[in-house]
């Protein structure tokens, strides 16, 4: 093994005990990833014996590899041979709750034809590990990371599902909540019972001195139903850090035992066949007095430590950062500086989502061009998750600096967007619900399905208003699918399902209107998804068409260089993508009127015979060098395919 002197002898001893068939492979992986592990541990725990800690973690990785099924080992090799598998243009994601999509894990395979028809290759099943009873934040208050919710099935059902999905070319995505556990979790229960080892897993204070000091700079996540960031717990006889809810206890990641516990959980889930782990609430994991305790540098070091363990044991498993943070902080989660290529492989493009909704409401693209162009470049291996909406509410993450740069006032624009999508602004076509209005800050967020927010549910089929709503839906999906990365569709949006009018009827949902946009999939509607006479059929056909076209365009590989064009009509968003296979220009009219676009943008990009791949037709400009864009037009323009010569 090369560089033997750099590896602790304790690690060498572990490797020496491996079966000869595995030894070379694992020696090479340890050689590749141990330096990154040691670097991360040194950042996190400078006062600890990091070599001993690294040896424990490597030992866990080697043990997990020994238990890994042959099919998963083969998948590891396949992923290592194609490290950009996540970035391919044929990737398409779908997100849903198991019970609201199929009922149980065992029943889910019978529903996969819907996903096949769309071209889905990436399935995110929302939290399905056993949560606390009662209110559990949609499953994010986990009571046991190694047990499945009883109503959904068991671990064997989950393992069997991953085998089925792999056979159909679909990668399973599960949530791994890092910042907190449920108060009912064994660690928290043992902490309350007086076991110091587990009390040290949490932030527990005997009085308000430390909590009050932290509160001076901490924001409130849910001010309506979870004000403050600390909760007095009688059994623990202390103030417990509870960022999200009083029954979600924040973990103390400055304790290396917490890292070791989570490394074991990562390996357990990976060996069940989970291919993508969504690192929930990762931005909150590291606490520092005098800050907002978000996006601290150590967050990236702890991600790096977990990822190195996974790369040694199960390199087919990748990480996705659930970091809904400011645009400037976001790219760090894909790896910058010393963490480049060593942290999360995926991150949510929250800024793109917000700007799509902003453009649709205003019919104007100046702010979006400013915001999207200002984002730092992603590392070559970093991949965006692009989405129109998700399970959560929409928070208007409009940067004040971006707004000011284009002559807007950030607060006023955020308020306008909330009013527009709540249907409270004159002329609005939207039918959303206000979520978590904060009278002090003026912050208002929005709930709603795509169909309701885009005006489909409030317009009559066959009318101009309905046709415009359909066009907005197609356009919005085209922007998301045309950005690169992995586009993810939220369940029900592919069928234009409206807000669930009975969202509050289920126990525990009555105070959380986000359940309005988490409807149970209407399988009667899905059975007629190919009927183009219905709104559901039209939306489904449009989305499936975009996915097929996308899969055929190498220019939509996630690593392609992306440039937002500045000198276009204010109603038009244009993006140039550079790829060795050839250039591409995506052109979108975000307004409800005709707009013009200069054809010189095509020639400047290197496209001599422009062809709109979405409509499969060539693009011809007028004598003035302008091309006309119809209302809500969406074009993906590439070089026209060469004609096959006749023999």
UniProtKB/TrEMBL annotation:
- Mention one GO molecular function: amylosucrase activity
Would you say which domain of life the source belongs to?
Answer: Bacteria
**What SMART domains does its record include?**
Aamy (SM00642)
UniProt keyword annotation of Transmembrane helix present = no
InterPro entries xref list: Amylosucrase (IPR044077), Amylosucrase_C (IPR055218), GH (IPR017853), GH13_cat_dom (IPR006047), Glyco_hydro_b (IPR013780), O16G_dom_2 (IPR045857)
What keywords are annotated for this sequence in UniProt?
Glycosyltransferase, Transferase
- Catalytic class of the enzyme: transferase
* Protein name per UniProt: Amylosucrase
Organism of provenance: Terracoccus luteus
């Amino acid at each position: 093994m090369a560089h033997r002197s750099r590896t602790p002898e304790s690690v060498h001893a572990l490797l020496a005990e491996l079966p000869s068939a595995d030894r070379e492979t694992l020696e090479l992986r340890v050689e590749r990833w141990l330096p990154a592990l040691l670097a991360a541990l040194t950042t996190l725990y400078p006062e600890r014996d990091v070599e001993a800690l690294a040896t424990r973690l490597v030992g866990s990785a080697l043990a997990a590899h020994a238990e890994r099924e042959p099919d998963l080992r083969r998948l590891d090799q396949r992923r290592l041979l194609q490290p950009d598998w996540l970035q391919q243009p044929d990737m398409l994601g779908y997100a849903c709750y198991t019970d609201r999509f199929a009922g149980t894990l065992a029943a889910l395979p019978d529903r996969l034809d819907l996903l096949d028809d769309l071209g889905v290759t990436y399935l995110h099943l929302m939290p399905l590990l056993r949560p606390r009873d009662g209110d559990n934040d949609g499953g994010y208050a986990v009571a046991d990371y190694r047990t499945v919710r009883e109503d959904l099935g068991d671990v064997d059902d989950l393992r069997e599902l991953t085998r089925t999905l792999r056979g159909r070319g679909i990668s399973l995505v599960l949530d791994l909540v890092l910042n907190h556990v449920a108060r009912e979790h064994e660690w928290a229960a043992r902490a309350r019972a007086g076991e110091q080892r587990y009390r040290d897993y949490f932030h527990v204070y005997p009085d308000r001195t430390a909590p009050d000091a932290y509160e001076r700079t901490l924001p409130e996540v849910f001010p309506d139903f979870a004000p403050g960031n600390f909760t007095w717990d009688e059994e623990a006889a202390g103030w417990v850090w509870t960022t999200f809810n009083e029954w979600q206890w924040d973990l103390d990641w400055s304790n290396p035992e917490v890292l070791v516990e989570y490394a074991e959980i990562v390996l357990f889930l990976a060996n069940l066949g989970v291919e993508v782990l969504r690192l929930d609430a990762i931005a909150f994991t590291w606490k520092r007095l005098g800050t907002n305790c978000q996006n601290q540098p150590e967050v990236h070091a702890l991600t790096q430590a977990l990822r190195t363990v996974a790369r040694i044991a199960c390199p087919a498993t990748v990480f996705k950062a659930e970091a809904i943070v400011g645009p400037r902080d976001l790219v760090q989660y894909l790896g910058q500086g010393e963490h480049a290529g060593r942290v999360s492989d995926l991150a949510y493009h929250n800024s793109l989502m917000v700007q799509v909704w902003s453009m649709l409401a205003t019919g104007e693209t100046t702010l979006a061009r400013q915001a999207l162009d200002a984002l730092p470049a992603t590392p070559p291996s970093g991949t965006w998750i692009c989405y129109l909406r998700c399970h959560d509410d929409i928070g208007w993450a409009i940067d004040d600096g971006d707004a000011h740069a284009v002559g807007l006032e950030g607060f006023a624009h955020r308020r306008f967007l909330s009013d527009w999508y709540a249907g409270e602004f004159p002329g609005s076509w939207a039918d959303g619900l206000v979520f978590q209005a904060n009278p002090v800050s003026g912050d208002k967020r929005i709930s709603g399905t795509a169909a309701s927010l885009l005006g489909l549910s409030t317009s009559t089929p066959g009318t101009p208003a309905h046709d415009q709503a359909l066009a907005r839906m197609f356009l919005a999906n085209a922007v998301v699918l045309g950005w690169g990365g992995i586009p993810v569709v939220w369940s029900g949006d592919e069928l234009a399902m409206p807000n669930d009018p009975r969202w509050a009827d289920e126990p525990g949902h009555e105070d959380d209107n986000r359940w309005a946009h988490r409807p149970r999939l209407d399988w009667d509607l899905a059975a007629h998804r190919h009927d183009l006479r219905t709104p559901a059929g039209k939306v489904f056909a449009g989305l499936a068409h975009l996915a097929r076209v996308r899969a055929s365009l190498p220019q939509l590989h996630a690593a392609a260089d992306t440039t937002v064009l500045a000198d276009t009509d204010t109603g038009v968003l244009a993006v140039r993508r550079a790829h060795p296979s050839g250039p591409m220009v995506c052109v979108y009219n975000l307004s409800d009127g005709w707009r013009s676009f200069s054809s010189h943008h095509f020639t400047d990009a290197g496209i001599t015979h422009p062809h709109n791949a979405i409509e499969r037709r060539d693009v011809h400009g007028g004598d003035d060098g302008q091309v006309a864009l119809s209302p809500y037009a969406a074009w993906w323009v590439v070089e026209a395919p060469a004609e096959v010569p006749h023999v």
